Amino acid sequence: MDRFVGRAHLEWWANQTMCLETYTIDITTTTGTAGTAGAWQATGRHTPVLDSTQREGWDFLMEMDPYFSVVFPSKDSSGIFVRVLEAEDATLTLMEVPEGGWPDEQHPDPPDPNA
Known about the structure:
The chain is mainly beta. It is 11% helix and 40% strand. Strand 1 (5-13) and strand 2 form a beta hairpin.
C-alpha cells in the first residue's frame, strides 16, 4: 500500500483471540509501504467523533496500551499493527510496529487477522 485515503478501523486486541473495541477512522497514509518496518505512517480522525462514553473507553485503552491493529476495507481484512498517538486537536498519528512483533516483552504476539 503506497497511499490510501478513506475509512479504516482501529482494533484494540487484549490477546490473540479477543478484540475489545473497534473504532472507525478517516485515514490518510503518509509515508512508506505497509510491511516495511518503521516506514509506514498515517494520520486520521475518529468518525464519527467519539461521544463521552466512547471517549472514556478510548482514553482507558490508550492509557493501558496505545497499540492497535488498523484494518483497511479489503477482501482479506489484513491489518497493520500500529502505535497510536493522539494530539490535543484529536488528530491521530499511526506508526507501524517494527516487524517481529511488539516493541517490548509485555505484549503478546499480535493477533493473526486471517485466523
